[in-house]
Protein: TF-B3 domain-containing protein
Amino acid sequence: MDKICMNEACQATTSVEWKKGWGLKSDGFATLCYNCGSAYENLVYCETFHREESGWRECKLCGKRIHCGCIASKYLHDYLDFGGVGCISCAKSLETRSKRPIQIMSDDIPNGFGKLTTNNIGDPQSSVVENRMDGIGVDKGKLMLLSKTMEAKEPSYCPQTQKADINACIGQTKQEEIMLPIGEASMCFPNLVQQPVGSSTFAKSDTGIPRQGVKDMYESLAQPSLGFSLSTPLDTPNSVLPFPGGVVDRREQNKVPPFQQGQRTRHILPKPPKAGLTIGSEVNKGMISQPRVARPPAEGRGRNQLLPRYWPRITDQELQQLSGDLNSTIVPLFEKVLSASDAGRIGRLVLPKACAEAYFPPISQSEGLPLRIQDIKGKEWTFQFRFWPNNNSRMYVLEGVTPCIQNMQLQAGDTVIFSRIDPGAKLVMGFRKASNPVDMEDGQTSAIPNGAHSGETSFNGVNENQLTHGGRTNEDMLQRPPEKKRTRNIGPKSKRLLMHSEDAMELKLTWEEAQELLRPPPSAKPTIVMVEDHEFEEYDEPPVFGKRTIFTARSSGEQEQWAQCDSCSKWRKLPVEVLLPPHWTCTDNIWDSSRCSCSAPDEMDLKELESLLRVSKEFKKRKITESHKVALECEPSGLDALATAAVLGDNVGDSGEPSVGATTKHPRHRPGCTCIVCIQPPSGKGKHKPTCICNVCMTVKRRFKTLMLRKKKRQSEREAEIALGKDQDTPKDEFEMDGTSGNLLPHINHSENESSQSRIQMEVAETSTGQLDLNCDPNREEDLVADTTGVSMTSLVHAASFPLEMYMRQNGLASLGPHLLSEAADESEGCPDVGEPEDSGDEG
DNA sequence: GAGGTGCATGTGCTA
DNA sequence: AGCACATGCACCTCG
Structure:
C-alpha cells in the first residue's frame, strides 16, 4: 500500500510501510518520509512479524501485513550504520555499483552464531529491486547520492558485520520482505562477522572477489583497521569525519534532502536522543576520539528485543585495532555495566536475558553449561552459563566471573563487552572502565552504561580515553539514549546506597548521636523478660526517634535539660529525665506551667544560648578528634576488639552509655532492644567455665595474650607521651556539652568522660591480670577490676580527668576508685604483669 | 563461621 | 500489569 507523506508540501509516496526501526524504537519513532522527513500516517508498528512468502510479512499479533518495500535512503543509511532495516531498492542500487557478494541470513540462526549463506547481488533479485526502486518514485539522484555515500563510507566504516548486514538484507530481496522487526536490523550487523557458509568471508580480503566497487569493500574488510563510523555521517561535521568523503560532506555539498535533515534533527535533538543508534558524532572531539557508537547487536535469537542499553559501544578505533590484533573479525555482541552484585564476590554476573538468549548457547537445564570466554589478553576463562527460574521467567547468570573480573580490575560501574571472534565464533570479553566515578553516583544516567561517552574501553589492549564533559560531551549526551534504567546498573544500587547530599546532611550524626534520639516506641509497654537472670525490656514496636535536647549542668552540679520548641524555637528547661517525642512545642511543656506557651518569654537569654551553642560546637570538634584518637588507640584491630570484648564481657561500650536510659549493652542498644547482642548472656556467661580448655576458650586466650603484648607496647608509648604532656590541663568551660547527647555537665565533658571511661575500661581490662574470663559478668565489672594487678598511668590520668563518681555511678563500679588508685600505685612500682591468660580469672 | 548456592523479593522500566 | 534485573536471604557445604 502506498503511503503519502503527510506533509502537503511534499506528498511523496512510498510503498513502504514502516514499523519502528529497531534503533529508534523508544524514541517515539515514527516513519518518516524519505523526502521531507515528515511522519507518515498510519504507521504500522509491530515487533512480531513473521515472514510469509511473496514478500509480505505478517504480524503474528495483529495479523497486519506489511509489504516489504524500499525504505528511504535515510533508512538505508541507518541500516548501514546500525545494521538496520534493509532496503531492496537501495540494495539494488548498491549492488549495481559494488557487485559484491551478499550474505543471507538464515531465518533461524541458532545461538546467534548462525550460518549465513552468501549470495551475490547480481542475481535476478536485483532486478526486482531495481524495479521497485523505480516504482517507489524515489529520487534517483538522491539514491545515487546515497549510493555514493555508501560507497564512500562503507569501506571505511563497515565492518564485515555491517556489510554482512547489508548483504543479508539485500539477500532478502528474494521478495521476502526486508522489513525486519525491531532489532532485526541488528541481526544483520553481525552476520557479517559470521562465517558465511559457503562463501566469502568478508572479514578477509582474501575473498578477493574482483568486482568493481566491491573491491573497496573487501579491502576495507580485509583491513580490520578500517573503522566503521556508522554514525558519523549523520552528525559529524566533515571536518571531524574520520573518513573523508563521508556522507555529510556530500550531503552538505549537494544540499541534504529535507528528510535527512529531519532525520538528523531527530538524532540530535536533545530530547529523544534515545535511540542508541544514535550514532552521532562527537562534535568537537575532533579526530582524537571516535564516536562511541552503540552498535546494533549482532544477530542472535531474540536479538530484536535487545535493549539499546546493551548495545556494544565500541569505537571504530577499538574495533579496528581489536580486529587487527586478532586478525579476525570481531563482532560486538552486547555489553553490560557491572552492578555491585556483578562485581561483587559472589562471582555471578547477571546477564541480560535477551542477550543471553540471543548470543549464548541455548540452555534448557538450570545448571546450564560451561562457557569459554576469552578475555582481552587472550586468556581463556570458563564460566558457567546458567539460569535461575524467576517469576515464570529466567534469570541468566555467568558464574565464576570473579577471577576474570578481578583480573581485569573491574568494579561496579565498569562495563564488560561481549563480542565474538570470527571465524570460530569464539566469545571474547572486553571491558571499559567507568571513567568518571562521580557519574556513577549520579546514577545511571551517567557515564557508565553504554558508556558511550566516557570511559576507556579495553579490548585487547586497546584503550581509549574519551573527552568527557563532566563525564561526557554534549554530543554524547545527545547521542546516548537517556536510559534511565542504566542508572540502575550502577546504581540501582545507587539509589539504594546513595543519598542526596541534603539527606546526607540531615544524617550527619554519629551512631551515638542517633542513639540519643532513639526512644522506646510510644504507647508501647515493654514486656519484661528474664534472660539468665537479667531483666530485659522487650518491645513489640521498633524504637522511634525522639526530639533532640541538650543537657547542661551548672557549676552547682545541677543538671538541666533544654529543648527547643518546634513552633517558636524558644528553649525551655525540662527535667533531666524527660524524653521528648520527635515533635515538641511549648504547649507540651507540662513541667513548667509558666512556660507552657510560646508567648512565654525565653528562659535563656541570647548570650547564654550562644555560649551554649558555641561550647557545643567546640565540644563536638574535640569529640571527633577524641573519638578518632580513641578509635586508633583502642581499636587497632578487630583482634583487639575481640579480645577486649572477651575481657570486658561485651560491655566495652557501656561506658559510653548516654543519659537516656542505657542498657547494659553496647551503646547502640537501648532499653527494649531485643537484638542478639542484648539478649544473649554476656561473654558466654554460664557457657564456659574458667578452666574450660575448649577450642574457643583456648583461641581467645591465645589471642588475648597476643593482644596484651601489643597493648603493652602501645601503652608504654602512650605513657611516655602523657608524661610529656602531663602539665597540659584541659580548660573547662563553664558549660561543657556532650556532643552526642548534648549533655552539658559542670566542669566535665561528659562525652570525653565517656571516651575516657571506655578507655579506662579497656585499659583496665588490658592491664588486668590478663585473665581471660569468658564468663565475666558485665554487671560485675568490679570483680574484674578488682583482680587487676596493674593499671597504667594513662588510666589514672584519664580517670582523674573526670568525676570518678559519675563514672562509677554509670557503670556501677562502686569500688572502682580505690582499686584504680591502688592498682595505679602498684603499677607505679613496677610494670604490671600482663602475664599469660589464666583460667583462674573467675568472675568472682 | 565463611562462603557458596538457589530462590525470593523489591524496584524500576516498558508496553 | 508484566517483565527484567539487582539484591537479599535462607539454606547448605566446607574448612
Residues 43-99 of chain A form one domain.
